Amino acid sequence: MRHDFRSRTPCILATGGAGYIGSHVAVELLNDNYRVVILDNFENADRGVAARIPQIAAGDVTLIEGDVRDRRVVEEVLQNYRVDAVIHLAGKKAVGESVADPLLYFFDNLFGAISLFQAMQATGVSNLVFSSSATVYGYPEAMPIDETAPTGVTNPYGRTKLMIEEMIDDLVIAWPELHAISLRYFNPVGAHASGLIGESPQGVPNNLFPYVAQTAAGQRARVQVFGGDYDTPDGTGVRDFIHVVDLAKGHCRAIERLLHRSDDEEDRHQRFNLGTGRGYSVLEVISAFSHACGIAIPYDIVARRPGDAAASLANPGRAHRLLGWQATRDLQQMCRDHWAFQVAHAVERSAVTHGMFHTVSPAATGKRQDFRPGLPI
């Protein structure tokens, strides 16, 4: 079903929209003048994020606390808010955890996607952006990686991402109205320049940037660098790090392509890499972060982790050509913005610990909270 957007502002549902990537996506959608509805169960999200989004971007944003696996709730949201497109970000994302508990990942990620797709089909919402991952490539044979590279997942998390992409392949055949874009992220890092939203993992971080930041802040003793004997310039692993704001803007360009596609669009499930095309080593990241925060960050080089590749970087040319998107923020800005959030978040945690803030009771599942300038929370 095609929509006429001339008479109203399009509404975008972001599942998992209170999470690290989702909150930045919500901000950029608001900056592009979309109406935004966030559906999140807060299993892996900071409740305070939803209140901070309107401090960054003005616009119409609604938070609904609920689970994407609850098809009834999803259908109600799609109908009640006249949703025009969905960005599906909800799901679990830790590779190590997926290896230890694959059934958890199959249940959460696969069942969540099935529930969403059923609700979309039932309500006639036929525009979808899926948050996929470069993990679907496994151990690529050539660099940089483009979208035609063979897939070869090496862990249950990556398997769920690839399986959902394959579900979408089948759905666009069975459901002629459906148009979808899968965005294969590389390594999202950084935070919004305001310092209000960023990555705040619980427990030991799974990703390099928060681990380095916590070490700089004195929360951890030293950074463990896994492997110093790779075939790379300094012997440490090389990754394509992308600023989370650039990543969020990529979602907006994908939504724009879906909502304003031509009637003769033949490829109804398109895939795009989102990365910078440039790799940075672990030691380069530590050095840049030390420069950004003015603190020497101690590290130890230890044995390789099983399954880690020497290098991984994207060929983002297709996204540049077809979406008009390109990452613009460099490693220094990634580090500066991440550190600004780390400092601000540490101050907030201290204030909560000492009773300077009070907590707000969450809404009941399926109930909405409107966060607009001037409205109490």
UniProtKB/TrEMBL annotation:
CDD domains on file: UDP_G4E_1_SDR_e
Keywords, ordered alphabetically: Carbohydrate metabolism, Galactose metabolism, Isomerase, NAD
Pathway of action: Carbohydrate metabolism; galactose metabolism
Domain NAD-dependent epimerase/dehydratase: start-end pairs: 12-257
Cofactor(s) this protein requires: NAD(+)
Gene3D superfamilies per the UniProt record, alphabetical: NAD(P)-binding Rossmann-like Domain (3.40.50.720), UDP-galactose 4-epimerase, domain 1 (3.90.25.10)
Molecular functions (GO terms): UDP-glucose 4-epimerase activity
Pfam families tied to this protein: Epimerase (PF01370)
Reactions this protein catalyses: UDP-alpha-D-glucose = UDP-alpha-D-galactose
InterPro entries: Epimerase_deHydtase (IPR001509), NAD(P)-bd_dom_sf (IPR036291), UDP_G4E (IPR005886)
One cellular component (GO) term of this entry: cytosol
E.C. number(s) listed in UniProt: 5.1.3.2
Example GO biological process: galactose metabolic process
PANTHER family hit by this protein: UDP-GLUCOSE 4-EPIMERASE
Assembly, per entry: Homodimer.
The family this protein is said to belong to: Belongs to the NAD(P)-dependent epimerase/dehydratase family.
Protein name per Swiss-Prot or TrEMBL: UDP-glucose 4-epimerase
Record lineage: Bacteria, Pseudomonadati, Pseudomonadota, Alphaproteobacteria, Rhodobacterales
